Fold each of these.
Amino acid sequence: MNNENKRCYDSLMLGNQICFPLYACSKEIVRRYRKPLEELNLTYTQYIVMMALWEHGGMTEGELGGIVHLDSGTLAPLLKRLEKQGYLTRTRPDGNERKLYLSLTDEGEALKDRAISVPAEMQGCIDLPEEELSELKRLLDKALARMDQKPQKENK
């Protein structure tokens, strides 16, 4: 294969992708959360849902989905499990079968005190200087905000 043909496939090289290191880092970070979250009997996704509820209080399933970037198909079974564990209640407001309101139980609120050790335990899981970590978070927040603003192109 000549150089010109090789260059046309450069966009398919794994090393030229931004999505791959994001994916691989994300997967590795979630793996490292497994041990501290096991002690709370939570998965990583359940943990981010609980953090959103601790921070914002009760809300609808749709509002929660917007905050944690999860769709209803992913959230529904996860919320059922958290309800079964006694951490939250799911109720439908009178006359509105389409909305599902979520609120923390006393047990769900109490879990916050047990979870307080998780961030400290995870500190340093990305071995970068503090200023680079701050810059990475700033850039990821910026990218995510822009993705939220731009409608996704549908594959046809």
Amino acid sequence: MGPPNTTEGDEMTDVDLMTQAAQNITQGDFMGAMAIFEGHIDANRDDPAGYHGWAESALFEIQENGNFDEKGNDRINEGQVAAYFKKAAALDPQSTEYQAAYANALIEFDRIPMAIRELKKLKELGDSSDDFDVTQDLYQAAKMLIDNIDFKTNFDRSEQFAKQFLPVAVEFALLGMGFASAEEALEYLQTE
């Protein structure tokens, strides 16, 4: 006896699920997408796509609809969002997409020193192979970092926090523009 015929719609494939989750995201149903990714994670513990998808959907939900319920508590645990981004990056250490997403989430959640550590890892990943172009990711992250620093210091760049982290953000911006180093970029600013 062969395997029983599965009736249509009985079992969705992973591809179908990912397509469905993507459609949910497009339609703004981020919670629905999170539920799909949660099921995917339960069934595929070692697939980074599930963790990344869940975390990305959660981040969209937070950005779009805020993260406080009527009692003022977090609806979605930001620690879990960051942990899932981190898990995806750990499961696929060659993925610049996962690494960049993790760093950006840390900036979003105001974990600046941690974000900078992860951005340095992203840069190292970019340096490790010509196949990886992380300039766009670094440039975008630099912009987010600078916005975050300005917001946090109320645009007072002489403030200690700004003094500590602006140079790193500027360096990432220059690397993101395709310079090999901040020093190389500065050579172009030196006039005779």
Amino acid sequence: MSASLARLQQSHGVTIVWRSYELRPAGSPPIPPWYQERIAAMRPQFEAMAKQQYGLEIRSGPFGINSRPALIGAKYAESQGVGAAYHDAVFRAYWQQSRDIQDIDVLIDIAQAVGLETEAFRTALDEAAHDESVSGDVAQAMAMGIEGVPALLFAGRYLVNGAQPYETLVRVMQQVEERLKQEPPA
């Protein structure tokens, strides 16, 4: 979890619910070379911003991977009560340890680290219910017009795109609370 979200959760008691989102779902066209070059050129700026604003050392994993197995694993981890720990471990593995989170062996290492049993986790990666849950989250994001990550949804309807500093998230929360107070009771 980002430092801003963790701080917001602690200071304001917010509940964070993670939803699945695929940047490159199955069947997506190949990423054009010019776009890959553009992202690679922007990476040093992104890494500097992450360090300056959030105190994060970024060493991201491979670009353009299939994140679906990690997302399915997250649904299983949630069903076992360790969803937040799994999410944080996958985040660190990809963004800070440069690990390939489409690799099942990497996901199994993460699952073991958060207390999940290996064979049960491996089996869960092939269960239709978890895959359908991921598909449901992705469909919901598309219906809301979400086109990137991170995307934060406050009170089920106020969307904030992109990583944001803690202070910005506090202002958003205050604005949402004010709007909700002004609404007539349902």
